[in-house]
Amino acid sequence: MSPAIDLGYTPRPQQLALHQALTKHRWVVAVCHRRMGKTVCAINHLIFSALEATLERPRYAYIAPTYRQAKLIAWDYVKAYTTPLPGVVHRESDLIVNFPNGARLQLFGADNPDALRGLFFDGVVFDEFGLQPANVFSEVVRPALTDRKGWALFLGTPNGKNQFYDAAQTAVSNKDWALLTFPVSATKLIEESELEAARNVMTPDEYQCEFECSFEAAVKGAIYSAQLEKARSEDRICPVPYDPSLPVDTDWDLGMGDATSIIFSQSLRSGEVRLIDFVEASGEGLQYYANVLSTRAYTYGTHWAPHDIAVRELGTGKSRLEVAAGFGLNFQVTPRVTGGSSEVEDGIHAARLLWSRCWFDAKKTQPLVEALQHYRRDYNSRLGEFRATPVHDWSSHAADAFRGLAVRHTLPKVKKPEAFTIDSMNVSTGEWSWS
Fold first, then answer.
1. Which end of the chain is more exposed for a tag (fewer CB within 10 A), N or C?
2. Are strands 377-380 and 385-390 parallel, antiparallel or unpaired?
3. Quick one: average pLDDT of 317-345?
């Protein structure tokens, strides 16, 4: 970074270490405790990179879990540190800063990955990477860094073993990556009296996660944490091969403007459920998913979809059930839970009951397992309790598909009437006899 540029930013030793790591490594993972100043550090690194770029039309991106978070958390920092620079233009409507040398810095939300498609980048910062969709880097951003050999910085505080944890593990064993970990016990940036006050109101898991950068601590408010821990301890997240002698059922959560999730499973008479595959995408129509299914060499059984698939759309007068049938997808509607306090809560209860019978393919269903790990209730700090309704974020779609799978497996089956054969009718009495 050029010493001639003064933005009013003086990095702490930890922030300086982060800047230096990015000068030596293309991929950097930084695990930071709360209030360490990671976002300020990241924004300044993006700004200096844009100012010193030599390639034509340099492009840099800051990506938060949601667009709203990017605007609320990072945009003020961007404006504060770039306003003193002559010739800089801020576009508030789309969170863009244009620099006089042709460089651009733009803020995005990982909740809308389609906004990142078709772009190229020289450098990208993922803030709170563990709260973003698991595929946002590998499928969307990594290709955008290829042409210019751009770099990426993955920031966050641990929130269970998710894609952020995986990135940290990659950094340990790959020379092109660097891992920096900043627990509060090492940085000493927060006074002990404040930490003690935090310990008094936080659970040990919360404190270890937020301040000591522990990936082992449970995700706060996680709905399936106990079930997932048991599945791991019993080695039920492992290679689960496709059995050609069994049909493959699919369970769907259908998105309109957001993601569609599909779980592929095989059920045994013993009650065991093998989850062998998983697909999730956004912005695609039913024909796309029909093509996805056709490319897999599975023998399909039943395709299950939520009840809203039967709702007719005003524009066409057709339901998605009818549209799907035109592509060769014949759906059954997933049974609805009735009689409980909440359909979602009863579905979650059914899912918890099913967990002990489930085996997950470690590779093909990894995004599903990560979503189930992060499916959680939000914490209401004012009331000091978790909200009843689960958080609706990137993990919700996969969790809803799993909930549908669980409901159809755990609801009592309606016994079909026994088949019989009509033999004859007594003409005088009008009574039938059958066997």
1. C
2. antiparallel
3. 84
- Report yes or no: 49 and 5 within 8 Å, Cβ to Cβ: no
Residues 6 or more apart from 147 whose CB is under 8 A from it?
120
For residue 293, CA distances in Å to 170, 207, 249, 299, 378 come to 31, 44, 11, 10, 34
At how many degrees (to 10) do helices 366-374 and 396-410 cross?
90
Residues 385 and 344: their CA atoms lie apart, in Å, by 19
Give how far the C-alpha of residue 346 lies from the chain's centroid of Cα atoms, to the nearest Å: 23
Q: How far apart are CA 354 and CA 69, in angstroms?
A: 35
Percent of the chain whose predicted confidence (pLDDT) is above 90: 68
Q: Can you point out the beta strands (E) in 146-235?
A: 151-156, 177-182
Confidence band, pLDDT 50/70/90 cuts, at residue 382 = low
Residue 173 three-state SS: helix
Could you give the CA distance from residue 162 to residue 69 in angstroms, rounded to a whole number?
20
The answer to whether residues 34 and 211 touch, using CB atoms and an 8 Å cutoff, is yes
Decide: helix, strand or coil at residue 117: coil
**Other beta carbons less than 10 A from residue 403's beta carbon:** 26
Query: Which pLDDT belongs to residue 218?
Result: 65
159 to each of 20, 129, 233, 254, 390, how far by Cα in Å? 26, 10, 19, 27, 16
What domains does the chain contain, in order, with CATH numbers? 13-210 (3.40.50.300), 225-410 (3.30.420.280)
- Kindly state the tokens that stand for 36: 């360490």
Length of the chain: 435
Q: What is the DSSP letter of 412?
A: P
Distance (Å) of CA 116 to CA 167, 206, 267, 349, 394: 20, 33, 38, 37, 16
Q: Report DSSP state, residue 251.
A: E
Structure-block tokens of residue 355: 């967990």
Residue type, 196: E
Count the neighbouring beta carbons within 10 Å of the beta carbon of residue 231. Answer: 20
Distance, in Å, from the CA atom of 299 to the CA atom of 29, rounded to the nearest integer, reads 42
CB 351 within 8 A of CB 402: yes
Closest CA to 377 of 337, 345, 342: 345
Judge contact between 145 and 152, C-beta under 8 A.
yes
Angle between helices 225-233 and 366-374 (to 10 degrees): 140
pTM of the model: 0.62
User: SS3 of 342, please?
Assistant: coil
CA angle 320, 325, 330 (to 5 degrees): 100
Alpha carbon distance 232, 230 (integer Å):
5
Who contacts 327 (Cβ-Cβ below 8 Å, separation ≥6)? 286, 287, 290
